[in-house]
Fold each of these.
Amino acid sequence: MFVSPMLARPKPDNFVMKPGEFCAEEKYDGHRLEVEISDGQQPTLFVQKGVMAWSRYGIERKLPTHLLEAFAELPNSLLDGELVVPGKRSYGVTELGNGPDLQYVIFDAIRIEEDDYTVLEYDTRRHCLECYFGHLKGPITLAPSWPVDSMIDVCRVRDEVWARDGEGLILKRRTGLYQIGKRSKDLIKIKKKQPALMTVVGWIESKGEKNYRGKYATVLLRGDDGVHTTVKTRNDAEIAKAEAEAQRTGQPPFIGRKLWIEYNERTPDHSYREPRWDRWDSE
C-alpha cells in the first residue's frame, strides 16, 4: 500500500552540523519511486511475487520485466528509492529507448517483512538495509552512505559526486525517524545551482484558496536567448513590494527589471530545471 514518502529540505544558509550527527548519501537525478513487494499481490507469468510501484505522488508506475524479476527475488517489503538511467538525467527515465537500462537505487525502507521501519532511527534502518540489500548488483542496488563529521567532509563528498556529474547529496540525521509525508529537518538536500540573469516580463496570479499569495505569487521571466521561465516570488515581503509598485504606477510592477535566478541545469529544449528566485540585480 502506498504511503507518502518523506521529503528533504534545502540546506539553510545558517546550517550547522555536529560531529557524528549526519550521514551523506548521493542525491540521484531520476524519478522517486516507492516499490512494494508482496506474496499477497497477483504474480505474473514471469514474476512469482506481486510488485507494485508508485511515484512520489501516488501514481502507479509500470516497470519493465527485468526490474520486476529482480524485485521478486527480494523479501516482502515497501522500499523508497530512485528509478534512474545511469549516465542520464531524470528526463531519460521516461524515454522509451531507455527502458532496458532502467535501474533502481534503494535508499530507505518503510517496511521489511512484517517490521515497521518508520519507528527506527536512520542508523538502525541503514544497518538493516545493508544486511538485506548490501550484496545486490545489477538493476537494483543500495545507495552508498558516507559518515560526515563536518562541512569539510560534506564538501569533499559533494565535490566527488559533482566531479562525476552527479546531482548532489542528501544529509540524513542518524537519529532521525522516517516521517511519512513530511518535509523533514532530518533530511537536508544539497544541489548544484547555476546563476542566470533574467528580465521580468509579467506576473502570474495564484488561484485557489490553499496557500493563496495573490496576483504577484509567480514572476514570468525571459532570458537573453528568448527562453522563458517562471519562479515563485521569494516571499510575502517581495509580493508586498510588487503590490505597492503596482498601486503607485497603475501598471504591472517591475516589468523590464533584471532578476537573478538559480537553477539546476538546462534541459535539451533549453528550459531551466528547478529555477528559483535569488535576488534583484540591483541588490
Amino acid sequence: MKDIAELIHFGWRSRRVWWFTATARTRARFARTILGGFWLGVSNLLSIAVLAVVYGTVFQVKDFPSYVVYLGSGLVIWNSLAAAITSAPNLLEQNSIHLLNTNLNPIFYSLEEWAFQLQTFIQSVILVILGLAFYQPSLLLHVITAASLPLINLVLFLFWAPLVICLLGVRYRDLYQLVPILLQLVFLLSPILYKKESLGALAWMADLNPIYRVISPLRHALMHGQVLWSQVLTMALLNLLGIWLGCWILKRERKYLPFMI
C-alpha cells in the first residue's frame, strides 16, 4: 500500500506537467484548423445522425427522438472508451526513448495519455450533448443533477483500464492484435445501437461487460435524470480495485520495463 500511495503522490505532484504535455498534444492535433477540437463533436454528430437514421429504420423505432438520444449518448461514451483502450497496448513503447534515458516514473506517461483522452472526451461530448438537447432539452439539466457520479466512474475507468492493458501489452505483444478484435466484438454485443432487451436470453452478456457497465449508468442518468445506485456503487468498487491492480502491476514490472520495450 505504501508503494501505491507513493505513485498517487507522484501523480499529484506532477499533475501540472502531464496535463500541460497532454494539452500540447491536443493543440498540435488540430493545428491550423478552423474548428479545432470541435471537429471531434462534429464527427460524432455526423456518425450519430447516420446511424440513427439507418438503425432507426432497421429496428422500426417508434419514438425516434428518444432513440437518437439513446444511441448518441451511448456512442459518444463508447468512442472515448474505445479510443483510450485502443491506444493502450503500445503506450510505453511509444515512450521508450524517455523510459530508457530518464528516471521518470512510468506512470507519468499513463497519466499524460489519460489527460489527453479526457480532453478529447470533453471536446466531443459538449457538442454532442448540445445537439442531443434539441431532441431532449432536459438532458442539460440531467448533466448537472444526476450524471456526476457515473461520470466520475467513467473518468476513473479511463485511467486504470488502459494502464493495466499497456503494462500487459509490454509483456504480451499479442494484445496489439487482440485488443482491436475484442473491441469490435464487445461493441457488437453491447446495447449501444439497440436496447438491452433485444438480446433476449443473451442479455447476461451485457451485465458481465465492464465497458457497458460504465456506459449504462451514465446514459441512464443523462436520459432519465436518475442514478442507478447499485450499478454506480458496484462500478466504483471495481474502479478502486482496478486502480490498485494497475499500480501494483506497475510497481512489480517497473524494473523490467527497459528490457521489454
Amino acid sequence: MHKVLLGFVALILVIQLFAQGKITVAVAANMQYTIEALKEEFNKTVKTKIDIVLGSSGNLTQQIMQGAPFDIFVSADTSFPQRLADNSFTAAPPEVYAQGLLVLWSTNVNIELNANLKFLLKNSIRHIAIANTRTAPYGAAAEYLLKKYGLYDNVKDKLVTGESITQATQYIVTKAVDVGFTAKSIVISNEMRGKGKWVELNRNDYPPIKQAAALLKFSEHNNTTAAKKFYQFLFSEKAKEFYKKFGYIIPHHD
C-alpha cells in the first residue's frame, strides 16, 4: 500500500512537472505560419514546449472567457484582447505587435485579379471566400472594403463564409471558390507561396488591422516564467524581423 501511494505521488509530480514544462498559446489563424517560425526561433535559446491552438480571434476569445487553459492570446485585432482585459482575463494590458494586410487570392488560372474588385461582379465569379465577419478581423476588413467600393449588396450572395482565415484559405486552395479574401502572411508563406495568384488590396481603404497580444491570467498559475519569456519575445527585434518577412507592418510606438 505504501509503495502504491508513493507511486501515485510520483505520478502526480511527473504530471505537474510536465504541465509546468509547456505553455499553450491561442493564435489567430492568419498567424499560423508566422507563429511556427517564431516558436522555432524562440526554442533555439529557450527549450519550452509551446502548444499552438489556432482559431478565429472571436472564437478564441470566447473559449478564454469560458475557462480555456491558454497562457497567451495572439489576436488579429485589438478589440478582442481588450475585451478580455476589460473582463480581467489578462495579466497586463494587451499590446500591438504587428499590422496585417488584406489580399485577394485565387488558384483558378482563368481569373484575372484586380485590386479595384469590380471584376467580382462578373457572372463568371460565382463564389467568393471570406472569413466570418463577426469573429475574424480579416473577414470584417474584407466586408468593409466591399461596402466602401459599393459592391457588397451585389456580391453578398456569392460570399462563402469560413469560420476563420484558415477555412477561407482552404476554400481558395481547393478551388471550392473562384476567389477569396485572406491575409498576406498566408499567401507569402513557404507552404502557400506559388499557389495561384494574389493582389494586395489598398491598405488605406479599410481600417488598419492592428494585431495585439495579451499575457493571460491563466499563466500565473501555470508556467509563469516561460509564458512571460515567450510573450516578451513576441515584441523583440528578432520577432519583428519575422513579422516583416511574413508581410506584416511593424507599428511605430511613440
